[in-house]
Amino acid sequence: MNPRDPALPAKHLAGYLLLAHPAMRDPNFARTVVLMSAHNDEGAMGVVLNRPLGRKLGELNGAFALGPISEVPVFQGGPVQTEQLILVAWQVHPEGFRLHFGIEPDQAVQLQGEEGMHLRAFVGYAGWTGGQLENELRQKTWIVVPVPGDLLEHPQDKALWRTVLGREGDEWKLLAAEPEDPSAN
Fold this sequence. Notes:
This protein is α+β, with helices and mostly antiparallel strands. The chain has one domain (16-172): VC0467-like (3-Layer(aba) Sandwich). 19% of the residues lie in helices and 35% in strands.
C-alpha cells in the first residue's frame, strides 16, 4: 500500500506524517508536520510536531512544576481545543513506530523511563470531520509519509518541514527550499 497515492481512501494514516503542501497558506497548517494518531470514517486527528512554544510543561502548568515530567517540551498541537493539554509519547525503532496518544500524567512518567521513548505536550490538536481529510488528500493539500527513524534527531521547529519534505524527491526539495514570503526572494 502506498500511502501517498491520492486515490486511496486513506483510512490507515494513524502513525504517518502529513506534510503541508508548499502552496498551503492556511496559517494553522502552513509548513507543518502533523503526526496522525487516529483516522477512520468518523474523522481524523493528530498533532503538529514543528510548532514549539519554547516552554516546558512545568512552566505551563503549575501542577507539573516539581514533577518528573516538568521538563517535557510544549508545542502548539493545532487549532482545535487550544485550551486542552495532550501528552504524547513515541518510539521509533527497527520494528516500527509506537505511539501513545492522550496519555495520563502517571503513564507519561512510566513511559519516560523506557529507552528511546520521547515525550511531548501539545496544546490543542489538528482534527478533521469524517471525509474532510480524504477530500483534502484528493486535492493534494497534504503529502503523506511514514515517520522517518531519525525524526527526533532534527530540530522540532520550522526546519523539520523542510527536512522531511525535501527527502521526498528533487521537486519537493526545491519547493521546500522556497522562502515563506516569495517577495523576500
